Amino acid sequence: MSVKLKPLSEQVIVITGASSGIGRTTARRAAERGATVLLVARDEDGSREVVGEIEAAGGTAAYAVADVGDQAQVDAAARVAIDRFGRVDTWVNDAGTSVWGKLLDIPNDEHERMMRTNYFGAVHGCRAAVPLLRDAGGALITVGSIASDLPTPIMGAYSATKHALKAYVEVLRMELRDMGAPISVTLIKPSGIDTPIAQHTRNHQPGEAQIPPVIYAPELVADAILTAAEKPRREITVGGSGRLQVLLGLHFPWIYERVAPKAAAKLLTDPDKKQPPTNLWEGRGGSERSGEHAAKTFSLYTKAVERPAATLAVAAAGAAALGAWWFRRREQAA
Question: Is 168 a catalytic residue?
Fold first, then answer.
């Protein structure tokens, strides 16, 4: 069954993890393009602030307080969307948290809490969203990470949650297609993004956690999400440098396994610098960016993935021009 998605200006979009970082940026940019937005997060103050900003700019938004680790709370947030706006056209699973440390040093309760947010949070979102999207169709978008493909020392437990998330999303896509459900299922895989995620990390290493380079702006992820809301996409990696890292790990594992532990050690600041409070157990929203990095605002690779038809056309035109130039040179030489 073909999937037809509405223009953003006609959509109602639910975004989890929307009080800070990528979710907050996506909510703002979606509203700027005319979408009606329901923000879902634990942090009520941060969510209320974003809704106020959207409404002040002439947009339409509301929020629901929910911990995505609890299915009942996610279902309640979905009911808010239906009660307020009558439907859901796109659902974005973005809520996430992180724990850094050597795998054997991370307490089980922290590992389980992160899995409940990063993995089960998306599972709960999908279970709430599919019944709402099954009849009229729509987009189901989940924010993973290049860590979905790339195991990273110190971030090993976080990578495990993202690997699990990738498997769930890919199988769900197959099952929905087999059912004939008109739902586009997309996995977004950001590289290092300038958000407060490192500042909110539960860190068991000395020093303050830092975002892995190369660092990109959250607007690039938001734009990838909104592209998938309008045009069915299987997956989008945000940031060409992240894609290169994944390819290195995939094709040259013996090199990656030697280099990765040394590179991971550089993801921490001065050991005497104190790590800010974590959002592992409670919401800590309030900002889109970390305020610590000069992030890249463009990725040619990501634009090519977002617009494959246009990219192919440009490549074909370039190949044709090159071929014409070559034939002219041969004729002149003859």
Answer: no
Same-domain status, 234 and 315: no
Confidence band for 296, pLDDT divided at 50, 70 and 90: confident
CA distance 64 to 76: 8
* HSE of 47, CA atoms in CB hemisphere, 13 A: 22
303 within domain boundaries: no
CB of 150 within 8 A of CB of 243?
A: no
Beta bridge partners of 235: 187
Catalytic residue (one of 63, 119, 158, 168): 158
- The strand pairing partners of 12, in sequence order, are 36
Based on the domain organization, do 329 and 212 belong to the same domain?
A: no
pLDDT-derived band of residue 25, with 50, 70 and 90 as boundaries? very high
Q: What is the CATH number of the domain that holds 29?
A: 3.40.50.720
Question: How high does pLDDT run on average in the chain?
Answer: 90
Same domain, 329 and 283: no
What is the number of domains present in the chain? 2
